[in-house]
Structure to design on (277 residues):
C-alpha cells in the first residue's frame, strides 16, 4: 500500500522529467543551443594531380591511365588503385558524393565519410596539366591559407566542413612536380593550428621539405625514393591518423600496405617512408 502510494505520488515528477528531457533533445537537434555530446568533425583534404604522360616528367604509362584530362580512367584517380575508386570500394569509408570541382582545374571532387568516426575526406582531382596549381593549393592549405567551409546534408542534419586552409590534415598525391619545375614558396602561415601533411610522391621529403617547412605543417608521412603514389598507402596512413597514432606507427602502416601491393619487402618499404623532419 505504501509502495503504491509512492508510485502514484512520483508519476507527476516522472512526467515532468520526461518532458524536460524531450524538450532538451528537440532544442539541441534544431540548434537552439549546442549539443555538448557532439563529436568534433575532423577533415582531410586531398590534392590529387592526375597522371599525365604529356605534361609531366613521369615514366610513361598506358595512354588512358596517363591521360591528364580523363579523371575516370586516370592512374591516380579512376583506376583500380586511384583515390576515387579505391576509397569507394572500401568498407571503412562511405561515399557521400562526387561531382565537378569548384574551379576549372579540378575535374572532379569526391567526398567520403569514415564510418566509425567523425572524419570526412574531400579529394580533388586536378587536371594533369595543372599540376603546379595542385601543388600550390596543397601548400597554401598546409599553411592555413584560403580556408573554406563546405556544407553537407547528412542523415543527422547539416554538417560544416573546414576544407583547404581550414582542414586538419592535407595530403598531396601524384608526381613530384619539383623534379620538373619550381613553385613559389608560401611566404606566410596564417594560423597556429596544428596541421599535419602527407606527401605521396617520389622522393618527396628531399624536394618538398623547403616548401613545407615554410607552411608550419607537421610532415606526417613522406618518401625518400621512387614510389607509386596509389591510394592503398593513403588509406593506411589515414587509418593511423584517425586512430590518433604517432608518426612512426603511421609510417609502419604505410610500409606494410605498400609492401602488400608492391611486394618490395617490408624493410625496403620502411626505408621508403619517413615521418617528421
Amino acid at each position: 500500500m505504501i509502495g503504491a502510494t509512492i508510485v502514484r505520488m512520483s508519476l507527476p515528477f516522472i512526467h515532468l522529467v520526461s518532458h524536460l528531457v524531450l524538450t532538451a533533445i528537440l532544442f539541441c537537434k534544431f540548434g537552439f543551443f549546442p549539443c555538448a555530446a557532439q563529436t568534433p568533425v575532423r577533415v582531410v583534404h586531398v590534392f590529387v594531380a592526375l597522371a599525365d604522360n604529356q605534361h609531366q616528367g613521369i615514366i610513361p604509362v598506358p595512354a588512358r591511365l596517363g591521360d591528364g584530362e580523363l579523371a575516370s580512367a586516370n592512374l591516380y584517380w579512376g583506376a583500380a588503385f586511384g583515390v576515387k575508386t579505391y576509397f569507394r570500394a572500401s568498407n571503412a569509408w562511405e561515399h557521400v558524393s562526387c561531382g565537378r570541382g569548384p574551379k576549372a582545374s579540378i575535374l572532379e571532387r569526391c567526398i567520403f565519410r569514415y564510418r566509425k568516426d567523425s572524419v570526412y575526406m574531400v579529394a580533388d582531382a586536378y587536371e594533369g596539366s595543372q599540376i603546379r596549381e595542385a601543388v600550390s593549393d596543397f601548400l597554401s592549405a598546409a599553411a592555413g591559407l584560403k580556408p573554406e567551409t563546405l556544407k553537407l546534408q547528412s542523415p543527422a542534419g547539416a554538417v560544416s566542413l573546414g576544407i583547404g586552409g581550414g582542414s586538419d590534415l592535407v595530403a598531396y598525391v601524384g608526381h613530384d612536380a619539383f623534379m620538373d619545375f619550381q613553385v613559389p614558396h608560401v611566404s606566410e602561415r596564417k594560423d597556429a593550428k596544428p596541421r599535419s601533411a602527407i606527401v605521396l610522391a617520389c622522393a618527396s621529403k628531399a624536394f618538398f621539405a623547403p616548401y613545407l617547412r615554410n607552411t608550419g605543417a607537421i610532415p606526417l608521412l613522406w618518401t625518400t625514393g621512387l614510389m607509386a603514389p596509389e591510394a592503398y598507402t593513403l588509406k593506411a596512413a589515414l587509418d593511423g591518423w584517425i586512430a590518433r597514432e604517432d608518426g612512426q606507427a603511421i609510417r609502419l602502416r604505410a610500409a606494410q600496405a605498400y609492401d602488400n601491393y608492391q611486394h618490395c619487402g617490408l624493410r625496403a618499404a620502411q626505408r621508403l617512408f619517413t615521418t617528421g623532419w
